[in-house]
UniProtKB/TrEMBL annotation:
Name of the protein: Phosphatidate cytidylyltransferase
EC number(s) recorded for this UniProt protein: 2.7.7.41
Annotated Polar residues bias: 24-33
Major location (coarse): membrane
Topology class, membrane: Multi-pass membrane protein
Species whose genome carries this gene: Mionectes macconnelli
TM ranges: 108-125, 152-170, 177-199, 205-231, 243-261, 319-341
Amino acid sequence: QESESENRLDGETASDSESRSEFGGSSTVQTSDDTPEVLNRALSNLSSRWKNWWVRGILTLAMITFFFIIIYLGPMVLMTIVMCVQIKCFHEIITIGYNVYHSYDLPWFRTLSWYFLLCVNYFFYGETVTDYFFTLVQREEPLRILSKYHRFISFALYLTGFCMFVLSLVKKHYRLQFYMFGWTHVTLLIVVTQSHLIIHNLFEGMIWFIVPISCVICNDIMAYMFGFFFGRTPLIKLSPKKTWEGFIGGFFSTVLFGWLLSYVMSGYRCFTCPVEFNNDTNSFTVDCEPSELFQLQEYNIPLVLQSVVGWKTVRMYPFQIHSIALSTFASLIGPFGGFFASGFKRAFKIKDFANTIPGHGGIMDRFDCQYLMATFVNVYIASFIRGPNPSKLIQQFLTLRPDQQLHIFNTLKAHLVDRGILGSLEDA
């Protein structure tokens, strides 16, 4: 009984083993790490521990450099990269399900999976286009029609895929087909929905995109560094290599890094201004008058700390206070996205989601915490930052019929007169 239990996957029950046999065999999937030959030769004299250190370090620097390049190229390139990352993550998770359960004989499984990805992206990006490119949509007749009936078209597209799935059901594969149907939709929920929130954060201002992502990257690097050199106490069984020393060291490093990065970026309009579409030039613009969030303010230092630092006040940007919340989440809650991914991989006995990046695994291995972070940032902005947008209200007002515009004008005028605002303006 003990040997039989050891041969099962972590946390697997007898029913899981029976289901696995029904699905076509073992659910163990192995992935290899394709380290470039030039690195293998250069690091051949090192132990496996230090070899992994250098491979991860070199590839990390390469990815950070690539990150800086795409930021320099602007919002449109960033959105394209987010879209490409989303597709690759979806591909990695779907491929695991395809291989784990030997779904090779399932009719239309892969075709329907990609079709549902297309439908969900059409819905989300259609909503974004209508919201952020309202004037452009109203100017073009085909876009105006697609925008007006967007949700109905999206629902019709999904229903088509749903009917195709029902028609593809095969007698001997009912259970497996419904299992993979659920696998596809959970993947869509995790990957597509949250990657779309990253784009929403980007439109609020590049700083809301760069700072959270950078905090997650910083926490990942510093937790690895502290854990590599000082790690002694295991943190969680799901990730045996994670240590309390790395977790705590990563937390303090990330908070300090986020606070300093926010101070640097808050002084540049190209990072703080919302990303908007200029209809005259048909291009994105990031020029505006910075809000109070990005203007230096003077704050009183608590009496307890005044004797330590020797200052009574400090000048800083209000966004830096928000950055503490962002970096705290990135270092304390964000890693649970990685633990969740570790549990998923252990459940199917795989080392990584893929072998796309030597020393790091697949794209999903690098973005497991980023998606959770993106959701938090979006909720944080909606709860504590975002207010009514006058420009969008005016855009919608101008699309109404003349009688509707006149009714709103008279209502607003009466309201302003009652409050005494319109009268004071006329006297002036």
